[in-house]
Input
Amino acid sequence: MSNPQERIRTICRACGHGGCGVYVAVEKGRPVKIHADWEHPISKGYTCKKAHAAIDLQNHPDRLLHPMQRVGARGEGKWRRLSWDEALGIVAERLNRIKAESGAESVVFGHGTGRDFHRFLYRVANLFGTPNVLTPGHMCYLPRIAVCKALGMEIPLVDYDNQPKCLLVWGSNHLISNPDENKGINLAKTMQAGTRMIVVDPRRNRLTDKAELWLQVRPGTDSALALGMLHVIVKEGLHDREFVARHTTGFEHLCHRLDEYPPEVVERITWVPADKIVAAARLFATTKPAALQWGVGVEQNVNCVDADRALIYLVALTGNLDVPGGNVIFGIPPGVPRAKFSLFDALPDTQRAKMLGADRYRLGATNLKGLMCQIIKE
Ligand code: SF4
Output
């Protein structure tokens, strides 16, 4: 029989949102090619390069298939292959030795970006007895989630289905990166439909070239830029007064704070010309609906929690929070159970209190997931 190839219908899970429909061509039990599923109701034939690269995750000749231990000096490049039992034995012995000598909390478990395995690491850490887990999420997506939780909501995502008329793209190279939340194709279609675009990015890219306004922000000054835009919006009375009256507290305090951020001052902090700040603020506040597509460029700064807060205010005070074509609140669909897999609750209080940074950085400590469980409870 010539080349019997099977096609299995499934979904891609190579990124955070997952869910693009694909067919996997399988030969002799091994995946050999990924094809788009044109009938899939969500992705409608769209796949990004990550989906096609997924074949290499399994088949690439350089893929590491066995535990390896470095022998000799660092940099010498000498390794020996171990059995799984031997490798696990070495790791367990060393971890337990450190725990006996210095306490479980002296071990920080860390992991890279990967999908679906991090819950296991949290569980190992919690059962080992340390509250300290570091993830790429700490400089990526978790501060945004934590800020939203602290404000009492889930993350507000762009409602591309209802075609925003103005899009504020902040620290995101969305077309290329296809990050969590939304696929780049949604942004591309919105651009084709003629949305007016403001892009905040220190670097020139395809989006900055297409934007009506490019604010070339000095890295790390996003909070000041957002406050500068809010200053213009509030001082010019372009904010949504009904929203303020019905859903906010402390608006006067915010107004006092905004006094410190007129466009000329913000220009000195951010290097964005004052007239561009004014133009961007007016465009975002007066074009309805408008939405903020923010990326993890914002969270890769030390002041990201405040930047995230200011950005959410920008959306909310312009009347674009939870409205069609604006930023809509993402929630886990009913019926999806929230797994309590990590067993953070099982950590004794004495150990939980040893979480690095928990006393000073309520929204940025290690084991942010555990901390968020606590915040939600409180
Ligand atoms: S956006 Fe790319 S990586 Fe993410 S699910 Fe779709 S095809 Fe896979």
Observations:
- The first strand starts at residue 5 and ends at 11.
- The first helix runs from residue 49 to 59.
- The mean pLDDT is 89.
